[in-house]
Design a protein that fits this description.
heterodimer; A: mainly alpha; MetI-like fold; two-stranded antiparallel sheet; 17 helices; B: alpha+beta; 4-stranded mixed beta sheet; 20 helices; 16% strand
């Protein structure tokens, strides 16, 4: 197992080199560069640049070099100094900019992840155990809402409903008072209320997939002979469901965790913009739009690393969870 | 009796020796009570500027002004900016930070007088040294990323002016040849002309010496930042200085230095009142009235509007179609109308690149008959109805009522709808009707009008309205919109043929003060003249550039206005750009609790947009 993990980690290196190259190449593809975006943004606010000033800016940002030289310098900085470059937009190290929003992003993403699994697993199990019952239909209906409705639209509908009912617009996780005075105990109820909107909007987007997977897998496992055997030997339904069937049914759910790591790092982008959440996703979108290439490149590169690591972790977890995989590996 | 007269005379003498400023009684905001500051009279200059415009009510202190924006930068800067001089809505310039400016007899030397006793927001005296050092150290060495602005360049030789200190409150600006309109030019080009030398001297010197490490250490220490690039740092701290904590200013509000409130790219930030602000109201109350401006960062204008409706935000520009929603909200909100300066609504402006590379197109676009044909082949009544839902009237690219150069004749030039006449004009311009019912060039090649625009600015919708008219008149068109950065690139590469809803629309408050959109060669992103400069201009275009150059060498006010009118006349005669719909007004939606917000002002960059509303005079009445 250890040599398998070692080989997988070694494979990361060429994979990441190819990914980083592709990322940089694609970010460079649109015409123009950060300077054109910057000049355009400033012109929209009334500031005019001369051609000489624009040329100076290109030299200042190193954008007068060919893109492959810029790529080489970027990778060299990462490998030799752990330097991911600096964000043109923020005028700071890329890593500092990422760290600004990382903790809130992780917190929000973990809460949503827990919500998704915490809600979906029991519903999936219940629906499998009560197939075609009224409860199965009702819970499946609610599980489908998040997937059937675009997240941003659901966010707008919920915010509109709250505005009509309360006269307040709940944008962002923190109210002006919280931002002014810091978090206090008296703000906790409002904070939880504000958390509920992204939780419902983003959380429900992933529940349907998990519910249907668990339900289908559980039904599959319940029809297998080992279940029949366990039941014949007098095992309780609880033991059959949770000790045997669920364990086997979780395989596809666990392999799906690979993608979750990437999502945890960046958070949901479009929904975060609609709900004005100060998490990583909107930063990535803004960086891509303004061609702030080192910032965008670093975020996408980290996401790629997390997908690779997530896949490895999924494989390890699957092996731990399912003895058949371990035996297959040994044989 | 003699004794009494002597006593009275002595008393009179003593009274006359007391400085004028001490006679005035100044009061300060309760916010400053127990803050350990010197008395307000010592914090103000000897002659504070008095804000006493007719529309202003005497206000009361306190409260916070709440705003939200998707970007800080100029949105925060313009409302609180304090230039040496400032514009009034009537287009004239008045002293502001400077007490006055005087030219010598031949206008080669301008002497600027500052207000004695004025202080930076950190309490350090503001003197002529700050103005002179800023020019000589920062501008001449381009440490602020901008360098010497046009206002400081000689009208003929283009050499930079000399700026010298006379005494603590006086400095001179010397040109080789007369500089007739320096205060106005300065107000447009540079605005402030100062920086706190006591804060930036070491950093700027290190930049000049090429000592990057010291420069970064100094700059980052000033603002608590983490800049890694000297160029970026110089521009941010010396040009966008209001965006950084720890940088003293002369503005009514300065960015808070408190963690969690001091980052304009964060979720929330605060601008707090400047204890040494140098303006008072007519009753001697030190301004500003409102204690602080709070800022929420949001993603887009729709979120700003939502926050305005629930009272989280106090003011915001709104589109005409949103006004009913605003007025129906539970929060009481007033609408203030401001004039705009565009020549016709930007969304309906059509710019032909008169300097396009293709010879056939260049000849066609420069032909007045073609432009007239393109103008009259459109039914403006119908277009205006569809385009603006009836809010805007049909119109042409011409100055608005009240602006210099306005005439009814120009406003209605080429606005009739006559397709047959348009076709005749196209043929006079050299186009030949092809077998496909679309016009071709005389040499038989296809004529296709390739129109571009910026994505997400509504141009695609406008094109859908205009294209059927063009097609009916025999003009084959294509349309492509793309990201603004790409369009800017194409403009700089002269790769744009024709643009609808251009990056920079034609028109502004004054052709003399802000010629960018109206005089070829003045900007890099104006579609109708593209990369045209004096060297490749001919005919009336060359004449236009020459008149503008002549303006810089003309001192007499009447002669200057005559030149401006001549330039505008050339625009009228040639109608180089077309518009199909008149400009809309700008609508400010302001929470009823905010008082002293002006109605009927003019939105213009040179007036500093919201800056002309003088937010230091606003106050809150719940």
């Amino acid at each position: 197992m250890l040599s398998y993990i070692g080989k997988r980690i070694l494979m990361f290196i060429p994979t990441l080199i190819i990914i980083s190259f592709l990322i940089f190449f694609i970010i460079q593809l649109p015409p123009g560069d950060y300077v054109t975006s910057y000049v355009a943004a400033m012109a929209a606010e009334g500031e005019i640049f001369t051609a000489e000033q624009i040329a100076d800016l290109r030299v200042q940002f190193g954008l007068d070099d060919p893109w492959f030289i810029q790529y080489f310098n970027w990778v060299k900085g990462i490998v030799t100094e752990g330097d991911f470059g600096y964000s043109f937009e923020y005028g700071r190290d890329v890593w500092d900019v990422i760290m600004d929003r990382l903790y809130l992003t992780l917190a929000v993403s973990f809460i949503i992840l827990i919500f998704q699994y915490g809600v979906s697993l029991p519903i999936g199990i219940y629906c499998a155990n009560h197939q075609y019952s009224a409860g199965d239909y009702v819970l499946s209906f609610f599980g489908f809402i998040g997937t059937a409705t675009p997240n941003f639209l659901l966010a707008i509908i919920i915010m509109y409903y709250i505005y009509v009912k309360t006269g307040n617009v709940y944008l962002g996780l923190f109210s002006t008072e919280m931002l002014q005075n810091g978090m206090r105990w008296e703000y906790v109820p409002e904070f939880l209320g504000r958390c509920a909107i992204p939780l419902i909007v983003i959380g429900t987007s992933g529940t349907c997939g998990i519910i249907r997977t668990v339900r289908a897998q559980m039904l599959d496992e319940q029809a297998r002979q080992y279940t029949l055997c366990a039941r014949a030997k007098g095992c309780s339904e609880w033991t059959i469901t949770y000790k045997y069937c669920l364990r086997a049914a979780l395989n596809p759910v666990v392999s799906g965790l690979a993608g979750s790591l990437r999502t945890i790092f960046s958070g949901s982008t479009v929904s975060a913009i609609v709900m004005n959440l100060a998490i990583q996703g909107p930063v990535l979108l803004a960086a891509l739009k303004s061609q702030d290439m080192y910032l965008a490149g670093t975020i996408v590169l980290i996401q790629a690393v997390l997908v690779l690591v997530g896949t490895l972790l999924s494989d390890i977890a699957l092996a731990w969870l399912d003895p058949r995989i371990r035996f297959a590996e040994r044989s | 009796m003699k004794k009494l007269i002597s006593l009275a005379l002595a008393l009179l003498m003593v009274l006359s020796m007391i400085p004028a400023s001490a006679e005035a009684t100044y009061t300060e905001a309760p916010y400053w009570a127990d803050k350990g500051l010197p008395p307000v009279a010592e914090r103000l200059p000897l002659e504070p500027m008095v804000e006493d415009a007719a529309y202003l009510e005497i206000g009361t202190y306190g409260g916070e002004l709440k705003r939200a924006a998707d970007t800080g930068n100029w949105g925060n800067g313009k409302p609180i900016e304090e230039g040496l001089f400032r514009f009034k809505t009537d287009g004239t310039v008045e002293p502001n930070v400077a007490k006055k400016a005087e030219p010598n007899a031949d206008y080669t030397v301008w002497t600027i007088y500052l207000r004695e006793g004025m202080k930076w927001s950190d309490g350090v005296p503001f003197t002529a040294e700050d103005c002179v050092w800023f020019y000589n150290a920062v501008c001449l060495n381009k440490v602020d990323g901008k360098g010497v602005r046009d206002c400081h360049k000689d009208a003929e030789t283009k050499n930079p002016a000399k700026v010298e200190k006379v005494d603590d409150y006086t400095f001179t600006v010397t040109f080789e040849t007369p500089k007739y309109n320096f205060p106005a030019d300065l107000t447009v080009d540079l605005k402030w002309h100062y920086a706190p030398k006591h804060i930036f001297e070491k950093m700027v010197q290190a930049v000049i010496d090429g000592d990057t490490e010291t420069a970064l250490a100094e700059g980052n220490a000033i603002c608590g930042g983490s800049f890694v690039d000297v160029g970026k740092m110089g521009k941010e701290l010396l040009y966008y200085f209001w965006n950084y904590p720890g940088v003293p200013t002369l503005n009514p509000y300065v960015l808070s230095t408190e963690a969690g409130k001091n980052n304009i790219k964060g979720e929330y930030y605060e601008y707090v009142r400047n204890p040494y602000y140098w303006k008072v109201d007519a009753n001697g109350q030190q301004l500003p009235y409102i204690d602080k401006i709070t800022g929420l960062t949001v993603s887009n204008v729709d979120q700003q509007l939502m926050l305005l409706l629930d009272g989280t935000v106090d003011f915001q520009t709104v589109a005409m179609e949103d006004i009913p929603t605003v007025l129906e909200s539970k929060t009481k909100i007033n609408i203030y109308q401001w004039g705009t300066t565009g020549w016709g609504d930007t969304g309906s402006q059509l710019h032909f690149n008169l300097n396009v590379d293709d010879a056939n197109l260049k000849a066609l676009f420069n032909n007045k008959d073609f432009r007239q044909g393109m103008s009259i082949c459109v039914d403006r009544e119908e277009v205006a109805g569809i385009y603006s839902g009836g809010w805007c009237l049909p119109g042409q690219a011409a100055p608005q009522i009240g602006a210099l150069g306005y005439s009814e004749e120009w406003a209605n030039q080429w606005i009739e709808y006559d397709v047959n006449k348009a076709k005749t004009l196209f043929e006079q311009a050299g186009l030949v009707m092809g077998s496909d019912n679309f016009y071709d060039f005389a040499d038989g090649t296809d004529f296709v009008l390739n129109i571009v625009s910026v994505a997400d600015n509504g141009a695609a919708d406008t094109y859908k309205i205009l294209e059927p008219y063009f097609r009916a008149a025999g003009i084959k068109c294509t349309f492509k919109d793309s990201d603004r950065g790409n369009i800017d690139n194409d403009l700089m590469a002269n790769a744009v043929q024709c643009m609808l809803s251009p990056v920079t629309g034609i028109g502004d408050v004054s052709i003399a003060l802000k010629p960018n959109a109206m005089i070829p060669g003045k900007a890099t992103n104006v579609a109708w003249y593209g990369t045209m400069k004096k060297e490749n201009a001919t005919g009336d275009l060359l004449k236009l550039i020459e008149l503008y150059e002549q303006l810089a060498k003309t001192g007499d006010a009447a002669a200057r206005q005559d030149l401006e009118l001549q330039m505008l006349k050339l625009h009228q005669e040639n109608q180089w750009t077309l518009a199909y719909v008149q400009s809309d007004l700008q609508y400010w939606a302001v929470n009823d609790r905010i008082k002293n917000f002006p109605d009927g002002a003019v939105a213009s960059d040179i007036y500093r947009d919201l800056g002309i509303a003088h937010c230091q005079c606003w106050f809150i009445k719940e």
